Structures are given as structure tokens and as C-alpha cells.
Amino acid sequence: MIEEKRNNDLRKVVWELYAYIQDNLYLNRPDMQIKGREFNSALLMSLLTGLCEGKELIIGEPGLGKTTSAEYVCALLYRFPLGTIWGSEVSGHPEQTEEKIIGRPDLGKLNKGEEVVVWSHFALLPVKIVDEINRLPETKQSMILDGVDRGNWEYLNAAIINEEYCLFATANYQDRGTNTIVAPLIDRFDVMVESKHPGANLAYFIGGHGSNGVRLRSEELEAEFHSVLSENIPYPVRMKRLDELCDRFGEWLEAQEGIRTLSVADRREIRSSKRSLPFDLDFNAFLRFVVSELSFCHHFGQKRSNEACDAGCHFTGYLCNAVRNCVSNRFPISARNFSQALAWLLGDEEVDLEHLKAVLPFTLAHRTQWKEEVVAQREKEQRSDPLEIYMAKQAVKEMHRRYMEQAGEVKNALAVACRIVEGESMRPVEGDHPIYWEIRRDLGEEVTEV
Amino acid sequence: MKNPFLDFQSVPCRKKEIPLERIVRARKEIMDRLSEGYLRLVEEEVKDLVWLVEHSHVVRTYSAAVSAIQDLQYDQDDIEEFCAELDNANAFPYMISGPAGIYLSALINNAAEEHILLRLSEYERTFHFLGYRLPEGKTLVLQGNLGDFIGAGLCGGRLMVEGTAGNWCGAGMTGGEILVTGYTGQKTGEWMRGGEIHVDGPIGGFGRARFGGKIYQRGKLVVPHESE
Questions:
Q1: Backbone angles phi, psi at A37, to 5 degrees
Q2: Which of A234, A384, A432, B215 is the most buried (most CB within 10 A)?
Q3: Domains of chain B, residue spans
Q4: Nearest CA-CA distance, residue A421 and chain B, Å
Q5: All structural domains of chain A with their residue ranges
Q6: Closest by CA position to B152, among listed B139, B138, B165
Q7: How far is B104 from chain A (nearest CA, A)?
Q8: CB B16 to CB A442 under 8 A?
Q9: Whole-structure pTM value
Q10: Under CATH, to which class is A2-275 assigned?
Q11: What is the ipTM of this complex?
């Protein structure tokens, strides 16, 4: 009972933060609806990214609030003054170096023969923002792979592992100065969203009084943050001192602006109750259904980006025939993690199909490489999302329709498979969808005939 | 290996079944029970693999057959299929015609349908005792050439034979009607007490011991003869 009350209280704080950012800092229109509630997808996904220690790629035209939305969310969820966040941001440009991103040798100590690493604020802080990540050349993108994936930063012989961290990266649309984000790096992002233009009427208010984030700055505290970050003290001690400063900034925000924010303990509690939310069977079955469509290949055993499947394949109607690459194992992790966070935010007791449906397009958009002919068919269609997100939304709609037509049969097939693995003498359920074929493969059947 | 389907352990399993499979299975169950009843009857009544046609023996076999099929749900199609099983030499370890016919008669007499048609013309085996004790209200049509004791002990039912009947046709019948489109063998109407036998073909001979009933040949009364 007490736990539930506490949980509700924390949820209320997060809702207040969402409303505060939406009303004061990141003015934008709602562009998605979940269980009757309207949300702005960029803001919602950023908030969920912060809550569940995710990684978000924000795309959009220059000046449409990609970086600032991430900064506001980080400042309020993690209690860092904007000035400190600005100081820790990494900007993507061709001349970027490991020394500026991760750390550098302490030159004074080096002169004395000691090898001591001065870690960058980016590596130290739990909130990480990489601005214009696609301006980093492909060769330099691999410098941040490990850090992005595990919060593991290494320089010379020293290393730090962030206990808590979330990452936001922004990317402009392709122009002469941008590079392709390499597949291993883009796959590490949990979600991709677009920061859209808010429309002429809301845009009119942007930059006016109280909408520029000045209220999230405290120069005095920023100086103290800077001092702790620059001290040469062990990482755990430094983090403890940073936490104390964060709490002071939280108190300052509450006193100055009347905004309640989250402490480290609060965030831990939220994550713990989020993790305890169970997935319902439809969630479970539909996610398997989606993964099967995006990884199955009848001809080559699985999708591979260097192998194109035949035109006359029996599975032409499924997404396996429309995509080039195989969906990674990070995809279901992202989908589960973000769906749980969304279910927690909505106060639901189970993570269900609606949560998954809402999250899926954003977890798939950047991970799916569509065949050229499929893109050509779709790119001119009327839409309000960038092509990647639009195509992912359409794909989710298609898969959901297919799932609803045979949900009972899919769950039955999985239940029968469970009995077979437990030793019962039954025949696996046969069907046309890749999920049935994957089940039969898991049961050791050599499935070759169509 | 880890069971990757464990989350679905609580989902009740529906075995996908084609309707035809269900029908075939139900049929097979009935057929198994019919066969089981027949084999039990044979084991009880035919101890030395010899079965003598004695009145008391026939009555006892019929009673045993009726009790063997009690509580059994079946229809005309099942009886016809059982005939096919009896015709198949491999289906039963031993096949003795008398008890088989009595068992079939018990099935016919206790079936829910009032009108039963059995197509027996394709079978190699000759069936005896069909129509035994056919009760009032039942009509049995038999297509094919049949063995002895057809319509024996008929008690009120209507038996139509579209083919021929062997010896002792209508033996001991007490009522009802037997119509035979072909011929009948020797001793037609032996021990007859009532009812009518109509034969369209030749009659091999009449039973000498008769206590009533009438026998017609091509519509003409031949027994009792006007002189009797």
C-alpha cells in the first residue's frame, strides 16, 4: 500500500515534469495517442529514455529543438543545471578527438612521469548528449561505440563505468557535411524520434519570456559542479559529491520554480517498479511475431544484409521480403524496456499490446533497412513523419493486423511448442507466418518445404 | 536447452483438428466397440469353434448379442461398415457365419432407425440369419444374395430381400412380411407360425412343419395350398 502510494507520487512528479516541459520549454503539438492520451512523441520518448537509461537518436531540421529538448529532459530528470549539461555535450564534427570526447592525460602529472587520466565531463556525467552525431566521420564514430553501449569509457590504461546513464544524440538530415551513422552505432540507439516543427502559432511563442530554459540555470551551482568535475578524485567519490550537488539543485528548482524533480533514489525506485511490471501474453506473442518477420528468411535461414532473397519467395507478403537486414537482439531489449517504462508512466499493472504498439515504430525506424523498391513505393505517400518513422509505423500497423487475425492461433502454437519441449507427444502447429516456421525450427524440425 | 515457450505454459492447448478426423475417430471408436462385442460373443458362444443351429442355442446367442451391444450408440452406416469388417478376412481371427448374422440382427433390431438398408451385394462372404426376430415397426432392406435362415423368427417387421435367400427363409416367423425378389432355397417357411412370405422367383421347397402364415409366389398364394 505504502509502496503503491510512493509509486503514484513518483509518477505524479514525472507527469508534472512532462507538463512543465511541454507548457514552458519544448512547445510542440501532440502527434501520437496512447490509450486515449495525447503525447508529443519526441518529448515522451525523451522522457522514457531518461527514465529507463535508454539511448535516443533525435532527428530533425536544424533549429527545431532536438538538442534543447534533450537538455531540458536531462536537466529536470537528473537535476543538472543547464550550464553543466552544456559543458558536457560532445559535438560531432570531423576534427573531434578521443581526448575531447572521453579523456586526456593530465599533462602536469605526465611531466612528472605519472599517467593520470582527466576524464571529460561527457564521460563522467550520467546524462550524455552528442550533438550532430552524424557529423562525426565513420572512423571516429567507433570511438564512442562501447561507451554508448555499456557506459564503459576507456582511456590509456584507465577506465570508468557509468553506473547510471542515458544518452541523447541529435542528427540533421543528410547534407554535404554529414556522414552515415555506421550500422553498429545506430543499432545501439533504443529509439529514434523526430523533433518536428511546432507549427506557426506555437513557434511564435518560442524564445519569448520564460521559454528559453534560463530558469534551469544556477550559475553558483554550475560553478560548484564544474569544480567537482575538475577535481582529481576517485570516480565513486566524485559521483557521490555530484549527487549531493544534484540534490541541492533539485531543492533550488523546487524553491525557485516550484518544480519537483527526481533524486537518484527516486529514479532507482522508478526503474525497480518498472522492471517488476509483467508482460501480458499478447505482448509476448506479438513481439515474437514481429521479430520473426524481421529476421526470418526461408531461403537463407535468416536475413543477412549482404544476401538478397528471391523475388518468387513464398513469403513475399511478409516484411522479411521488404527489408534487407536482420533485426538485432538489441531490438527486443529496447521494445521491452521502453514498453515497460510507458506502462509504468500510464500507471498500468501489465505491459500490453498497446504499449508495445506505441513504442515499436520508434524502436524499429532506425534499425530497418528497407529494400530500394519498397522505399520507392512509399516515399511519395502523404505523411506527417519522416520516411523512416512513417515506414516503421506502416510496418507495425501491417504486422498488428496480421497478428490480430491469428492471435489465438499464434498463442496456441507457442503453447503447443511448450508442451512438446516438456515431452508431450504433440505435433507443432503449422501455419503460413514465419513465427510458425521459427517455432518448428526451435523444436528441431528441418523445415524446408513450403 | 532452455524452453523458450515457457511463458505460454498456462495457455490451454487447442489441438487443431480437421472435422473429418473427428468423424473418422468417432466411427473408429464405434467400430472398435462393435468388434469387441462380436468377439466376446464368439468367445462365449462358440467354445469349440463349432456352432450348431439349435433353437435354444440361437435364442441364447441372440440374448448375449443384445446384452453386448447395450448402451452402444450407432446407426445404419455403422452396421453397414461392420458388415464390411466382417467381410474382411483379416479383421477377425475367426469368422463363424451364424453368430455373425445373429449379432448383425441384434444390431438392426436395436438401432434407432426404423428403416434400414444394407448393401451386401459386393461382399464375398455369405451372411446368414439376417432379419432374425425383426420386430414390428422396422423395415429392413437387404441388397444381395443371402445365406440361410433369412428372416427366421421374424416377429412383425418387414423384410425386403433384393436378391436371393438361402434355405429356411422365414423359419419360425410369427408375424410380419418377407419379400424376396429372387429365389429362396429349401424349407422356406419351416416352423412358420404367422406372417407372409412373398417370393418373386422360384422356391426351392417349402418347410413341412408349419403352424400358420402364408407363402406367396409371384403374387399367388402357394402355402397353404387350397387343398390343405
A1: -105, 145
A2: B215
A3: 18-223
A4: 6
A5: 2-275, 281-442
A6: B165
A7: 38
A8: no
A9: 0.72
A10: alpha beta
A11: 0.87
